[in-house]
């Protein structure tokens, strides 16, 4: 199949670029090696929309961070994704740390960050009562925000698919060759969940003999491997892992903003942040790892996160932690984002090394890539571009009046499947039929929050599996957690 | 049914004298007893499609020895109650999820027939049961692979859906469900490699250790825990280690155990989110409500019983507690609990060697009243003398040949012994239950 543009990787960068380009008359495919989006860096990070004071002035990180943070609120509005302008603090406990705040503040001014101020300890304590009361000063960024990175990822892809792009999941790029001005993309099928599904099964024609005029490498932690396929080894990615501890919603009132510690030469410290869904979390550490998919959590790192968070926050109640997780960051060896036409071939665009503040920068990077593509091919706008997704309010977030109304209108709303997060059967079914629909238990969880709560799916997993099986037509024995190999039941059962 | 037209739809409002939240053993017992006591305008709310709660998946026997003097399976035990409920005019709402609760005893629920319901109750019995502690709450490090189940989820798969969770399992924690599942999986042909318990004593009942592990040659490793979970997609094994007296893993004792399935039986957590929403005061040691000897919470007319109040060892005790709550609800509806606030109040607290006590307060109303204080110990004791003291005076004691945290015990106090202290202004008037060394 021929494509004008092949985007490798369906994470936050790939999906927002796909959405941005989908307004043009282009044939676009997104190749995603996993069965779902948000299974790499996008799925597990701090979810912060950074203000942009800490990137080095003049760097791409600084440029895209500041631009992206201004775009985020409207983008979230368009895509019906929750965004909260929570504000962020970098807190100081002594004179040396206050000096660092001052230099961060000055740096922020150089980066043209708006809404920055140095505030005194009482201001912070009033906003965050559980903070360590010894706080003396803080750098307050009132425009910093929080967002669910995976919800934004799914929404961007849903939007792109509605505008006609093709998403090929469980499709891993293994080779790229240039033949007659076109890239020939060799792929390996990593699983069969998406092809077996009765809901939007993959059309095998779409991934047969893939040729592309332009390739956009948004392969995250694997972007150096992809770049090497065309002989561009100008950068390498050093995978780093960060571990987090998430707390129950009943604890969520303890944190309303993002609380950073003052960076030291030893590291950035550990942050305490509210989440848009009403939980709060602490983390991450930063461990360089050798294997790119080593998402293991480790006792010593979790202990480090806990001990370090305690320095800034007095509200930790470990009895109320509901899960721990690890995320991988694609740290580039160049020290800055790599956003450029490859020197080997200008039709090959690298979007690599997008570590923090990558989530914040993503909307601005997508706009920039639009211009990069414009420089390669002539772009014609579609007549029927859909820019916004229909707003859908989660049942749990409705008022009693609204709940009453939707229960009147639709019987499927009356069956609550996830008791911790109050998720209805209707919402779970809807997540399966979304343009980029859920195919796994984790996929349903990230889209609907069923299983995200305090019991972590102990009660609802059997029900979610039943619903997935009923609608996708995949046998319940083959319903899996995260990918074809993480089958929950059948394959491991005795016959 | 009273229908009010509101915001363009039909608003369903129901009013009851007593609403029982949860149709498991506690709620069913409470409903029947309430009916026996003469409460007629009564509703039982259950989120599942049948009554019985977790009993329905407990197909093993051993239920009912105290209440019925015979050995029943879980579903049989449940049927003894649900069949009676069916015969009486108790309004049962199945598939009904209570999604909100207010201090004025207004509940919000969704139900397939009525949709969104507002329920106004004169009194409420909380009987929501408990949930299992998941992996995340334990913060066991390692991969996020498939194949990690709480024992109860696995039990549901095997006994209700007829699907096995894996082929080679280890069980972390020796709670009763874990022990029962060790036997159940073995009978179904799953290899159970072993049960690993952090503490130096088992979490479950002795009879389950004997009948579920010993009889099947399944090893129980005490003072041992999982320190890491391996396997990228599906669990491939775990690293286990012995722990020292501070429960810290000892590095040198680490050992790799191959398995594709991990069952967690590491404690139950009362499901009190609704109670907390309502404003019920909680007791940290049980994660349940603070109650007096009527099982009444700080909110007048709101009672709690069963595993939502504190986690029980046997369903029989849950049943008795459910009945107790129903009798109290009846007394409340008859106006007999009204002057409670004017009566002398004594606090009950755990002393040395005791983890929790229940009830946590006693008010003095009737000199002939006998008050049972339930308690669990903090550790294992052999030949323990448990005493209840107030201002240094012993008012109750019990000698126990064996006292372990996994088996709940009780000591009975006579109200007549307490009246003296209730009147006194001096002293702290706190009853301490403690283990004498």
Mind sketching the topology for me?
The complex is a heterodimer of chains A (495) and B (437).
Chain A: E1 2-8, H1 12-21, E2 28-31, E3 48-49, H2 60-78, E4 83-84, E5 88-92, H3 95-110, E6 116-120, H4 121-127, E7 137-141, E8 145-147, H5 149-162, E9 166-168, E10 171-179, E11 182-189, H6 193-196, E12 210-217, H7 223-228, E13 237-247, E14 258-261, E15 271-274, E16 280-283, E17 287-288, H8 299-312, E18 321-332, E19 338-341, E20 348-352, H9 358-374, H10 400-409, E21 416-418, E22 423-424, H11 425-433, H12 441-448, H13 461-472
Parallel strand pairs in A: 1-2, 1-12, 2-9, 5-14, 12-20
Antiparallel strand pairs in A: 3-8, 4-8, 5-7, 6-7, 10-11, 11-12, 13-16, 13-17, 13-18, 14-15, 15-16, 19-20, 21-22
Helix pairs in contact in A: 1-5, 1-9, 2-9, 11-12, 11-13
Chain B: E1 2-6, E2 9-21, H1 25-36, E3 42-45, E4 61-63, E5 72-73, H2 74-87, E6 91-93, E7 97-101, E8 106-111, E9 115-126, E10 130-132, H3 135-138, E11 148-150, H4 151-161, E12 168-172, H5 176-187, E13 191-196, H6 206-213, E14 220-221, E15 224-230, E16 237-242, E17 255-258, E18 261-264, E19 268-270, H7 273-278, E20 282-283, E21 288-289, E22 302-304, H8 315-333, E23 345-350, E24 354-358, E25 361-363, E26 370-377, E27 381-390, E28 393-403, E29 409-414, H9 415-423, E30 430-436
Parallel strand pairs in B: 2-3, 2-9, 3-6, 9-22, 11-18, 12-13, 12-18, 13-14, 23-30
Antiparallel strand pairs in B: 1-2, 4-5, 7-8, 8-9, 10-19, 15-16, 16-17, 20-21, 23-25, 24-26, 26-29, 27-28, 27-30
Helix pairs in contact in B: 1-2, 1-8, 4-5, 5-6
């Amino acid at each position: 199949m021929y494509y004008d543009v092949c985007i490798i990787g369906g994470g936050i960068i790939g999906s927002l670029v796909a959405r941005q380009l989908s307004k043009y008359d282009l044939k676009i495919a997104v190749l995603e090696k996993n069965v779902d989006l948000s299974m790499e860096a996008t799925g597990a990070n701090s979810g912060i929309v950074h203000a942009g004071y800490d990137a080095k002035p003049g760097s791409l990180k600084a440029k895209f961070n500041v631009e992206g943070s201004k775009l985020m609120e409207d983008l979230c509005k368009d895509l019906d994704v929750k965004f909260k302008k929570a504000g962020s603090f970098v807190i100081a406990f002594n004179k040396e740390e206050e000096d660092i705040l001052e230099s961060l503040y000055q740096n922020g001014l150089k980066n043209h960050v708006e809404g920055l101020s140095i505030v005194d300890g009482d201001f912070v304590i009033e906003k965050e009562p559980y903070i360590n009361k010894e706080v003396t000063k803080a750098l307050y960024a009132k425009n910093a925000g929080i967002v669910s990175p995976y919800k934004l990822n799914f929404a961007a892809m849903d939007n792109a698919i509605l505008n006609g792009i093709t998403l090929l999941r469980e499709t891993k790029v293994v080779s790229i060759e240039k033949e007659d001005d076109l890239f020939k993309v060799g792929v390996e099928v990593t699983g069969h969940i998406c092809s077996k599904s009765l809901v939007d099964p993959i059309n095998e024609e779409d991934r047969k003999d893939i040729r592309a005029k332009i390739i956009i490498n948004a392969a995250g932690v694997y972007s150096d491997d992809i770049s090497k396929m065309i002989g561009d080894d100008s950068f390498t990615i050093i995978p780093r892992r960060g571990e987090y501890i998430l707390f129950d919603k009943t604890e969520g009132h303890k944190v309303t903003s993002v609380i950073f510690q003052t960076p030291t030469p030893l590291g950035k410290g550990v942050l305490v942040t509210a989440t848009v869904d009403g939980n709060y979390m602490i983390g991450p550490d930063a461990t360089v790892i050798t294997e790119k998919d080593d998402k293991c959590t480790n006792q010593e790192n979790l202990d480090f996160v806990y001990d370090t968070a305690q320095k800034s926050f007095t509200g930790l109640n470990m009895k109320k932690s509901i899960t721990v997780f690890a995320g991988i960051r694609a740290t580039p060896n160049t020290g800055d984002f790599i956003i450029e036409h490859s020197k080997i071939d200008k039709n090959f665009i690298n979007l690599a090394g997008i570590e923090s503040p990558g989530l914040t920068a993503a909307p601005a990077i997508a706009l920039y890539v639009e211009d990069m593509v414009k420089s390669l091919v002539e772009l014609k706008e579609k007549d029927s571009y859909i820019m916004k997704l229909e707003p859908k309010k989660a049942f749990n977030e409705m008022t009693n009046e609204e709940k009453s109304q939707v229960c009147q209108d639709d019987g499927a709303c009356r069956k609550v499947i996830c008791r911790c997060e109050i998720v209805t059967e209707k919402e779970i079914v809807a997540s399966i039929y979304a343009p980029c629909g859920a195919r796994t238990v984790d996929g349903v969880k990230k889209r609907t929050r069923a299983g995200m709560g305090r019991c972590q799916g102990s009660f609802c997993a059997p029900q979610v599996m039943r619903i997935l099986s009923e609608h996708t037509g995949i046998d319940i024995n083959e319903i899996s957690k995260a990918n074809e190999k993480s089958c929950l039941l059948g394959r491991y059962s005795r016959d | 049914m009273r229908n009010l037209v509101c915001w363009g739809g039909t608003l369903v409002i129901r009013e009851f004298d007593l609403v029982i939240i949860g149709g498991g053993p506690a709620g069913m017992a409470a409903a029947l007893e309430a009916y026996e006591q003469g409460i007629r305008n009564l509703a039982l709310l259950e989120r599942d499609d049948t009554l019985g709660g977790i009993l329905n998946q407990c197909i093993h026997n051993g239920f009912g020895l105290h209440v019925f003097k015979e050995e029943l399976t879980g579903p049989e035990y449940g049927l003894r109650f649900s069949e009676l409920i069916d015969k009486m005019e108790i309004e049962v709402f199945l598939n009904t999820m209570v999604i909100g609760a207010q201090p004025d005893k207004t509940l919000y629920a969704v139900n397939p027939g009525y949709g969104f319901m507002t329920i106004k109750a004169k009194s409420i019995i909380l009987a929501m049961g408990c949930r299992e502690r998941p992996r995340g709450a334990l913060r066991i490090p390692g991969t996020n692979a498939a194949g990690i189940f709480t024992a109860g989820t696995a039990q549901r798969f095997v006994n209700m859906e007829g699907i096995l969770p894996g082929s080679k399992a280890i069980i972390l924690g020796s709670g009763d469900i874990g022990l029962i599942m060790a036997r159940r999986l073995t009978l179904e042909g799953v290899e159970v490699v072993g049960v690993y318990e952090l503490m130096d004593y088992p979490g479950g009942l002795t009879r389950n250790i004997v009948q579920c592990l010993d009889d099947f040659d399944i090893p129980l490793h005490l003072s041992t825990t999982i320190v890491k979970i391996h396997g990228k997609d599906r669990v491939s094994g775990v690293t286990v280690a012995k722990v020292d007296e501070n429960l810290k893993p000892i590095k040198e004792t680490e050992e790799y155990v191959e398995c594709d399935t991990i069952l967690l039986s590491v404690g139950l957590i009362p499901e009190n989110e609704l109670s907390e929403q309502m404003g019920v005061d909680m007791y940290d040691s049980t994660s349940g409500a603070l109650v007096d000897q009527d099982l009444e919470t700080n909110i007048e007319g709101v009672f709690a019983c069963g595993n939502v109040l504190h986690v029980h060892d046997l369903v029989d005790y849950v049943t008795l507690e459910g009945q107790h709550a129903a009798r109290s609800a009846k007394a409340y509806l008859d106006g007999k609990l009204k002057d409670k606030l004017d009566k002398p109040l004594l606090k009950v607290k755990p002393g040395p060697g005791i983890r929790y006590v229940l009830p946590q307060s006693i008010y003095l109303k009737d000199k002939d009243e006998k008050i049972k204080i339930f308690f669990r110990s903090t550790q294992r004791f052999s030949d323990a003398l448990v005493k209840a003291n107030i201002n240094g005076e012993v008012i109750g004691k019990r000698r126990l040949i064996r006292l372990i945290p996994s088996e709940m015990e009780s000591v009975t106090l006579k109200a007549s012994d307490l009246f003296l202290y209730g009147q006194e202004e001096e002293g702290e008037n706190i009853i301490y239950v403690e283990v004498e060394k």
